[in-house]
């Protein structure tokens, strides 16, 4: 026979997840209603407007470690102060130090992802470029 504490834990988790599903379904219904009201208002003012031409805006969760615009500025500062090309991991480690955060593997991974995303956007703008690879890692430098 199954352990009663296992069953009670699973039942509690199922109850929690079912509650989340119900909450988010209600939220989706509310937002869908708001969207229909906005569509109707647009049609009221501009009946010829084609709503299919409106692109959806991606919802992004903001990084908890940086204020808006802080990560790109810090990344550029780190690269400016370096005499050599740096990997995104090295940049993330320097970010940890500058922010005064407790070093952990999970935090370093999160900051490395942020740094890599910023570096790719800065590369598209022509502000940084990839240097010589160090092993399997790409290195970055200011243009």
Would you give an account of this structure?
The chain is mainly α. It folds into 2 domains: 4-53; 70-142, Winged helix-like DNA-binding domain superfamily/Winged helix DNA-binding domain (Arc Repressor Mutant, subunit A, Orthogonal Bundle), CATH 1.10.10. The protein contains 4 helices and 3 strands. A 3-stranded antiparallel β-sheet has the order 1-3-2. The model has no long low-confidence stretch (mean pLDDT 92).
Quick structural gist:
The chain is mainly α. 60% of the residues lie in helices and 6% in strands. The protein has a 3-stranded antiparallel beta sheet.
Features:
143 residues, mainly alpha, Arc Repressor Mutant, subunit A, 2 domains, three-stranded antiparallel beta sheet, 4 helices, 3 strands
Rg on CA atoms, Å? 24 Å
Number of distinct helices: 4
**Strand count:** 3
Number of domains: 2
CATH architecture of the largest domain: Orthogonal Bundle
Q: What is the ordering of alpha helices and beta strands?
A: HHEHHEE
| CATH classification, class level of the largest domain | Mainly Alpha
Percent strand:
5-15%
Q: Say which CATH homologous superfamily of the largest domain is assigned.
A: Winged helix-like DNA-binding domain superfamily/Winged helix DNA-binding domain
* Average of pLDDT: 92
Q: Output the CATH topology of the largest domain.
A: Arc Repressor Mutant, subunit A
Q: Which structural class matches the secondary elements? A: mainly alpha
| Major sheet description | 3 strands, antiparallel
